[in-house]
């Protein structure tokens, strides 16, 4: 009888795997199939015989490369990649579940500060517009001598709209004013602040100087809008709007009237802004040191900003009263003041010390939350406006 047994390994065929009697052979080194074969190359399916599928000098013996081995490898690779992609997908879903974060790419750092300041000013002033209206009426005594009395008079005369009278002008004024103010403060403060380990560049805190510069810059740029807003709030029915008020004041009283009260305003703004930003900066540093946290949340920023606003507004309130009196001018037979000292002396003589602090309650009710909301919105906007896609 002929040779009918199965020979698994044949030393004479130099590593060929053969099945006797069936005429089938596979090359374990190169993965080539010779006609009549039943099994794939041992090297290709990775059975671990220690033979490389791509030797340095492969032998070309005219065989065909088996297509099913490629399909097998693609299938195994696909399963492995699917597992990795599935894990990455789950990780992304987990990140999304943590909360949606809004990011807007603004590469220019100066523009980011200006936009953040404008948004902060508009939001904060609109939120406290009714308190601002009551505070202005109390300062000039046009609708009563207490918060409750002024509120009832405004509601009886103009309704809810009266509480927001002049708010549009206020937003137009405050948005650029706050943008300029916060931009100047951030820029100057970073330039003057000493880095860790360095000696201070100034004998006084950098935040004091930066705050004063910020207040002066914003006041000079937006003071006429502040005067128009005050006139529209007090003189109901006299002007048809912002543009009409501007034209009438310039025509009847002269262009210089747009800057009436600028001196006391600057005198009041410098200590207010310096105190406000110094208090804000100091409270933030104290919070970081006490709680040992580098980042400060929105609620903490709101509380710190509100505390800074309370400190600064209480310290500089008499100058604010004098400024409002000078802005109103000779309306309804009111006295015209020559300068800030004359205004302060006249108010003190006629109304005493309480006259210098008339409206402090509603002023703090307005300025304290306004300062907190402003700082909170500013810091939040700076986190939303990022420099590049990686931060997003």
What is the secondary structure topology, with strand pairs?
Blueprint: E1 16-19, E2 24-27, E3 32-34, E4 64-65, H1 67-97, E5 104-105, H2 109-127, H3 129-140, H4 147-157, H5 160-163, H6 167-192, H7 206-234, H8 242-253, H9 262-291, H10 298-328, H11 340-351, H12 353-356, H13 360-384, E6 385-386
Parallel strand pairs: 5-6
Antiparallel strand pairs: 1-2, 2-3, 3-4
Provide a descriptive summary of the structure in words:
- Keywords: Membrane, Mitochondrion, Mitochondrion inner membrane, Plastid, Plastid inner membrane, Repeat, Transmembrane, Transmembrane helix, Transport.
- It is found in: Mitochondrion inner membrane; Plastid, Chloroplast inner membrane.
- The chain is built from 13 helices and six strands.
- The chain has one domain (109-386): Mitochondrial carrier domain (Mitochondrial carrier fold).
- 63% of the residues lie in helices and 4% in strands.
- A hairpin with a 4-residue loop joins strand 1 and strand 2 (24-27).
- By secondary structure, the chain is mostly helical.
- The protein is globular.
- Helix 9 packs antiparallel against helix 10 (298-328).
């Amino acid at each position: 009888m002929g040779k009918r047994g199965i020979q698994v390994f044949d030393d004479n065929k130099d590593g060929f795997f053969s099945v006797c009697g069936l005429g089938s052979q596979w090359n374990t080194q190169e993965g080539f199939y010779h006609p009549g074969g039943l099994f794939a190359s041992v090297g290709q399916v990775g059975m671990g015989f220690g033979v490389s599928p791509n030797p340095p000098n492969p032998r070309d013996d005219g065989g065909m490369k088996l297509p099913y081995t490629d399909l097998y490898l693609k299938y195994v690779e696909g399963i492995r990649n699917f597992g990795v992609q599935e894990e990455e997908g789950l990780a992304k879903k987990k990140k999304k579940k943590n909360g949606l974060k809004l990011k807007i790419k603004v590469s220019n750092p100066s523009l980011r500060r200006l936009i953040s300041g404008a948004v902060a000013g508009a939001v904060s002033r609109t939120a406290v517009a009714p308190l601002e209206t009551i505070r202005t009426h109390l300062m000039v005594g046009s609708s009563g001598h207490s918060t409750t009395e002024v509120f009832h008079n405004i509601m009886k005369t103009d309704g809810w709209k009266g509480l927001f009278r002049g708010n549009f002008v206020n937003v137009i004024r405050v948005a650029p004013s706050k943008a300029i103010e916060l931009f100047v403060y951030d820029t100057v403060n970073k330039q003057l602040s000493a880095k860790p380990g360095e000696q201070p560049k100034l004998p006084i805190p950098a935040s004091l100087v930066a705050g004063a510069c910020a207040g002066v810059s914003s006041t000079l740029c937006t003071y006429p809008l502040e005067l128009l807003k005050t006139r529209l709030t007090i003189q109901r029915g006299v002007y048809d709007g912002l543009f009409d008020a501007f034209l009438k004041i310039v025509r009847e009283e002269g262009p210089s009237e747009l800057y009436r009260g600028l001196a006391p305003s600057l005198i009041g703004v410098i200590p207010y802004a310096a105190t406000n930003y110094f208090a804000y900066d100091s409270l933030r540093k104290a919070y970081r040191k006490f709680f040992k946290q580098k980042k400060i949340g929105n609620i903490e920023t709101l509380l710190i900003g509100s505390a800074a606003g309370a400190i600064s507004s209480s310290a500089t309130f008499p100058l604010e009263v004098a400024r409002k009196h000078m802005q109103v001018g000779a309306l309804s037979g009111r006295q015209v003041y020559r300068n800030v000292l004359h205004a302060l002396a006249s108010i003190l003589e006629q109304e005493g010390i309480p006259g210098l602090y008339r409206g402090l309650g509603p002023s703090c009710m307005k300025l304290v939350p306004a300062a907190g909301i402003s700082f909170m919105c500013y810091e939040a906007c700076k986190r939303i406006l990022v420099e590049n896609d990686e931060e997003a």
